[in-house]
From TrEMBL:
Mg(2+) 1 binds at E68, D88, L90, D91, D224. It is found in: Cell inner membrane. Mg(2+) 2 binds at D88, L90, D91, D224. One of its GO terms (biological process) is 3'-phosphoadenosine 5'-phosphosulfate metabolic process. The gene is cysQ. NCBIfam families: bisphos_cysQ (TIGR01331). GO terms for cellular component: plasma membrane. It is a peripheral membrane protein. It catalyses: adenosine 3',5'-bisphosphate + H2O = AMP + phosphate. It comes from the Bacteria. This is 3'(2'),5'-bisphosphate nucleotidase CysQ.
Length: 288
């Protein structure tokens, strides 16, 4: 089954996972536990994980699966995988608990370290972002947003034109001095509006042409970004580390991403605009 043939199945699976999440979200009592790193996990995370895992194993029994909500295999084992599913069943659990609607279901197919297909479903709105970047150097296979009613709208990043105001995105829970540093650099191009939000929606907004740049210095995990990276790249954008190389997956002994930069307009000289960024975040080097 090729990448495009998988998409209808992933749309259905992500929607069903979204319904399972919403069934919990609409209740007054949500039980919360905490992992070893103190990040929260709810019954909605587990329900979505179980549903996605069962459906993907039926759909592609030969493709292994890596999910935030499962015991992780040893690095030696997983690094032998050429192709695998990378899943965050409920990205934005803190947003879910705060009931601000900014959470998603993320499903990505990784091949040779690259996300070749990504689906990001937004349970509250019922919309789903889909991206298949295709082989490096070739045109994207598809990039669109599908509404709850099934209408598809093409996704395309927007160019930075003249002195038109820029939209910089930031994390709702992890703002730091890096955001201010980036804003100062962007203001040399045009006026800047900083908007904060949770989950992988930030990358999807750039893919949709509604924002321009997002820089993240604080830690994230590979399942947080993979699906949205596929969407962003398919729409014409890039997700890069602080050395301006595309983020890759399953390359290290751990599953923590390096600090990263997401941009829409790839024609801008980002290495010049953000020159010196590697010195702006003390944790950057040890997460490489």
């Amino acid at each position: 089954m090729d990448v495009l043939e998988l998409i209808p199945h992933l749309l259905s699976i992500s929607r069903e996972a979204g319904k399972a999440i919403m069934a919990v979200y609409q209740r007054a009592d949500v039980q919360v536990q905490h992992k070893d790193d103190q990040s929260p996990v709810t019954e909605a995370d587990v329900a979505a994980h179980d549903l996605i895992k069962a459906n993907l194993q039926r759909l592609t029994p030969d493709i292994p699966l890596l999910s935030e909500e499962q015991q992780l295999p040893e690095a030696e084992q997983r690094q032998r995988w050429q192709r695998y599913w990378l899943i965050d069943p409920l990205d934005g659990t803190r947003e879910f608990l705060k009931r601000n609607d900014e959470f998603t279901v993320n499903i990505a197919l990784i091949d040779a370290g690259r996300p070749v297909l990504g689906v990001v479903h937004v349970p509250v709105s019922g919309s789903t972002y889909v991206g298949a970047p295709g082989v490096a150097g070739s045109p994207a296979l598809c990039a669109y947003k599908q509404t709850r009613q099934g209408k598809q709208h093409p996704l395309s990043v927007r160019p930075i034109l003249g002195y038109k105001a820029l939209t910089q995105l930031g994390s709702r829970h992890h703002q730091d001095t890096l955001d201010s540093w980036v804003t100062e650099r962007l203001e040399k191009l045009a006026p800047v509006t900083l908007t904060t939000m949770g989950s992988s929606l930030k990358l999807c907004l750039i893919a949709e042409g509604l924002a321009d740049v997002y820089v993240r210095g604080k830690p994230t995990s590979e399942w947080d970004t993979a699906a949205a990276q596929a969407v962003l790249e398919a729409a014409g954008g890039r997700l890069m580390d602080f050395h301006f190389e595309a983020l890759r997956y399953n390359q290290r002994s751990h599953l923590t991403n390096p600090s990263f930069i997401a941009v829409g307009d790839t024609q801008r000289p980002w290495q010049d605009i953000l020159a010196g960024i590697t010195g702006q975040h003390p944790d950057h080097q040890h997460r490489q």
